[in-house]
Design brief:
Elements lengths: L22 H5 L2 H11 L3 H20 L11 H21 L2 H4 L19 H16 L2 H9 L6 H8 L3 H23 L1
């Protein structure tokens, strides 16, 4: 005979029937949400975002049937308690997130960098050379090179242009060689 498994068993049945308060009823209790967020230390710059997360989380829970207040308790008071709990948890998640813990506010954030931000000057010059070389190619070669960046395959590109896939591959090879030759000439 097999012994019963220890640990988690079936979840307890809900004590009360689920109710569906309207979104207007939830929005009417915004003062509770904002008070909890202020008391939890959520800065004013992010308070509206966290408040929106609380409202969306509450509405999703209502739609899933997770709002099950005690029928003997006042409906408004039960809703306020429930929103208080959601607000408290969302504020805790916000305050413990890595983004908030590591945010460093500074008037000149780029001034704190040890190196220049963005691509190096040399990389920018190389990219400009490649673009100029691409612009100097004949239109059919530039089109073949740019078709490689499309999400469609080379076969689909060839069919759209009314040519065989072999012809498209040959044109692509010729265009790549021409671009490489132009770039080599400019760098000498």
């Amino acid at each position: 005979m097999k012994r019963p498994r220890k640990g988690a068993q079936s979840p307890p049945a809900a004590r009360h029937r689920s109710q569906r308060p309207t979104m207007q009823a939830i929005l009417a209790e915004r003062s509770v949400i904002v008070a909890v967020l202020i008391a939890s230390g959520v800065p004013s710059r992010d308070r509206a975002d966290v408040e929106q997360q609380v409202l969306m989380g509450a509405w999703r829970s209502v739609r899933r049937g997770m709002y099950r207040p005690d029928p003997t308790e006042d409906a408004r008071r039960a809703l306020r308690k429930w929103l208080y709990g959601i607000s408290w948890r969302k504020a805790g998640h916000y305050m413990n997130s890595a983004w908030v813990r590591r945010a460093v506010l500074h008037a000149q954030p780029l001034g704190r960098l040890h190196e220049p931000a963005g691509p190096s000057l040399e990389a920018q010059l190389q990219a400009r050379e490649v673009l100029e070389a691409l612009a100097s190619l004949p239109p059919w070669q530039a089109e073949a090179l740019l078709a490689v960046d499309d999400p469609e395959s080379l076969v689909a590109y060839a069919k759209r242009r009314g040519m065989s896939p072999g012809t498209a591959a040959s044109r692509l090879r010729i265009a790549r060689e021409a671009l490489a030759l132009k770039i080599r000439r400019w760098r000498r």
